[in-house]
Please model this.
Amino acid sequence: MAKLNCRRKGCRDVWNAFLVAAAHFAGFLEFPLIHPTHEVPNRLVPFSKAVNCEDRDQWVHFYEDDFHFERLWDDPARWLDTLRGFRGVILPDFSLYRDMPLIVQLYNIYRSRAIGCWLQTNGVKVICNLRWGDRRTQRLCCDGAPKCCVIAVGTHGSLKDRDDRRCFAEGLATIVAHLQPTAIVVYGDAPDRIFREYRENGIEVVPFASDVDRAHGRAE
Model:
């Protein structure tokens, strides 16, 4: 359990320690532990639209530019009632690029898990989003993620060229081997050349067209 140093008068929580006040941690880097979810989303809505959305019979996702949801990290409590009103939340997809310093990649994984831990503590159903940058984070991003349940990944923008596809396929293979998911929610394309073997091995692959593809009429 996290123990916070709150003894100093006037001390301000500038790094959102309250998010992990009830957390258990996993791995050498101590990412907050996320509990498993077994429900597969029916529909998805991006956070930027969810804040003013009256249709709450869907799951909130964060597969959009970071500036759309940095406000959640800046003031999590402000958005709790909004997120609590939906069926569930796929955890924030803070950017991880291969050319980012490793510490930044790890920090963005931490931020997603910290928010997820706090949401679960407050009764929100969440699905763990797995995002990796370079090869060093492919295994590390599994720490704290739940096993044998539903997980989520985003492919939009991750399959553009050969290097992107190779990195994504390698990371996904690592994650599946370690977490053994029962279902993978995919935001974006789920091409057979990457996902076929998982389908054939009994993992349910549930793709959702990206909002960009839907806006341009490219969704199936």
In short: Residues 29-215 form one domain. The CA atoms of residues 83 and 89 lie 7 Å apart.
